[in-house]
Amino acid sequence: MGLTGVGSRGRVLVTRRLAPDTLDRLTARHTVELHDSDAVMPRDRLLEAVRGTAAVLTTLDDRVDGEFLEAAGPGLRVVANHAVGLHNIDREACAARGVQVTNTPGVLTDSTADLTMALLLGAARRIGEGERTVRSATPWNWAPNFMLGLELSGAGLGILGMGEIGRAVARRARGFGLRIAYHNRSPLPDEQASGATWRPLERLLAESALLVVSCPLTEQTRNLLDARHLALLPTGAVVVSITAGVVDEDALAAALGTGALLAAAVDHHTHEPAVNEALLAQERALLTPHLGSATTHTRQAMGALAVDNILAVLDGRRPPTPA
Question: Is the pTM of this model over 0.70?
Answer without folding.
Answer: yes
